[in-house]
Amino acid sequence: MDKKIIVLLIVVAIIIPVILINYNEETKYVNQKPVVEILFPLSGETVSRLVTIRGIAHDPDGPNNLLEIELMIDNEWVFANGDYEWSYEWDAYQVENGTYTIKVRAFDGEDFSDIQEISLTIQNPVSVESDAHKWALFIVASNFPRDNESKLGNGPLNLAERMVSHFVQKFGYSTSNIILLFDDGFIRSDNGFGEPIESLQEYPHNYDITYGGATLENVKSSINYIINEANKFDNSEVFIWVSSHGLGDENRPITGGKLLENSAVFLWGGNLVTDKDLGNLLSGLRSRKTCVIVDACYSGGFADRTILDIKPFILLRSGIPDSGRVIITGASKFRVGWCSTTQGPVFSQLWFEGLASGEADGFKRGLLHTGRPTRLNLFKDGKVSVEEAFYYARYTLRKDDYYNDFKKMEPQISDQYPNSGIIRSSKGMILGE
Known about the structure:
Radius of gyration: 29 Å
CATH topology of the largest domain: Rossmann fold
Distance between the termini: 112 Å
Number of helices: 6
Oligomer: single chain
Structural class: alpha/beta
Largest sheet: 7 strands, mixed
Number of domains: 2
CATH architecture of the largest domain: 3-Layer(aba) Sandwich
Strand content: 15-25%
CATH class of the largest domain: Alpha Beta
């Protein structure tokens, strides 16, 4: 064979593999940009206070490549929760009214997606009607941790929605003054035990109130908002209801491990709020007509009570009870509470039943706050105070055989309405008046 041909073949044999190798190195992987989509709210909608923004995203290169979802709000990029199904709660309580552009992008470690955007109009009420100086906050943290045995289902949410309807229809509360915070702001399948379906803001409700997640940030901002608004008026009325898991030790049945500890409840994500934390949050509230109900295990410390109407050590007191306030808990500081996964916490069910039906009319304190009915119509005025509803619930827990399993809960009350100390009037707090 000709030497030139041999040399040419050798060169080709060497060069072609090199070319192919380089070609493969350059073309074997080309990253594709991820894709992001905003599902809620729709562009052009008017929103207020707490705004849940949610959407979906995917990466054409594979299901495990998405790293993060970012939103630009007020010229600042913030991270959303989740990736393929993502959400973000925008705290717009203090945002000036106007139109805002929300931008969203996804990142896969190499490239950002194309930016998607929506336009939203913030319309926060400047003030409320002169005859509607009433605010209500419902805080419900039920479905965590992931262990189903520890979840409370949607029962507390269902009870909160029933109470909202009653407050609007019977007590004259404006829907713009009612806030309901539940879990992470999402409804879940299987009565709360399954996967997220849609946000509370999308879910159909009887009334257009403010919905959001029961996160520490939302609780703080909601309480601060209510304080700022309620303090503008001398006749403001504030109602706060908390239903959650309480912190205690069931293996120590006498004290629940709370003898030298403060009562505390969990918010979504595992954040704890102690009774002192709530006392500090409410320290600036000047309303002389405030009712706070905390229905959770070992919650008596929120009312500065243990069992048998005994106050805890002074260093462990919450600071929540004050002149003009009625503070109620669904259980003693040393005892567990109970909750139905469909109807809500047992004590609050009875409290609301007595209030809404009128059955609690005439109920009095009794020995050690055990509660007792009256047989004299003289003590019935056709109205039910929050205190009468408390004594009705506690009496029912002790006397009705149906509730035999719940007798040890020992709900507690600190009644300083309308004044503190021994000069306190015997008049009860009537909501809505």
